[in-house]
Amino acid sequence: MTMKILAIGNSFAEDTFWLSPEVALSMGVEDFTFAHLYCGGCSINQHLLHARENRAAYLYQKNCGGIWEENRYDVTMRPVLEEEQWDWIILSTGTGDGSRWTEVESYKNLAQLIACVKPYVPEQVRFAFNVTWAGEATFERYEQPDLQKFAGDQIAMMDAINAIVREYVAVLPEIATIIPTGIAVQNLRAACGLCLCRDDYHLSYDVGRYAAASTAMMVLTGCEDVERITYTPLEAGLNKQVLEAVANALKTPYSVTWPK
């Protein structure tokens, strides 16, 4: 299988896709390109402005063989869009402009962003939306009080995010699929009781990123059996819990599945 995947995102996209090459290789995807237009905290609204005004706002990260070995700074979006025959463009929201995960205005300009991107990518390219995760219950970033609004209730926050995604994102004809990363992370929190963030909101480098990458690759490859993922960076019991959390997220992408 050959795959060329470009994420237009931020640190949440980096968390999701950092271990994707290892996961992909273990699933038999031997010919791949992963790339990321990174702008810290960048929201859909900010990406739209960068695209329209051709701003040199991005760090470009690229992985063609299992190692993130190319970094270019002060990059504009357009030449990257034209650089490869991309199979997938991955989009997600961010909060760097003071917008919120749980506010409709943070998602409404997605169709306009896609319209700016489409003229520069192959006609057959597919767009996916990566649904990010709730912060930890200790989430205290004063400028981004999403979880505070829900009194630390991560399930309520994920329900609010998913309600917006279902109403404003999944209905867009350009969006081929939703990647339920946030639900997979929340499933795993429920199953193992671990803190899956290295701070209040970015995923841990091991368990969190592995869960996110596994979710993304299951969706983008169309694979239905998590046992195809043989990359196992964790001890056996925890690795099994991660894959179960991912499998449950694929079955019920808009609701947390508590372990029985």
* CATH fold-level assignment: Rossmann fold
Q: How confident overall, as mean pLDDT?
A: 91
Strand line-up across the major sheet: 4-3-2-1-5-6-7
- Quick one: CATH superfamily? SGNH hydrolase
H/E order of the elements? Answer: EHHEHEEHEHEHHEHHH
Which residues form runs of ≥5 with pLDDT under 50?
A: none
Please characterize this protein's 3D structure:
This protein is of the alpha/beta class and 260 residues long. It has one domain: Rossmann fold, CATH 3.40.50. It contains 10 helices and 7 strands. It has a 7-stranded mixed sheet, sandwiched between helices. Helix 3 packs parallel to helix 5, helix 8 packs across helix 9 and helix 8 packs across helix 10. It is globular and about 45 Å long. The model has no long low-confidence stretch (mean pLDDT 91).
Could you give a short description of this structure?
This protein has helices at residues 11-17, 20-26, 44-53, 77-83, 110-117, 146-149, 154-169, 181-192, 207-221, 236-251, and strands spanning 2-9, 31-38, 58-63, 68-75, 88-91, 126-130, 175-179.
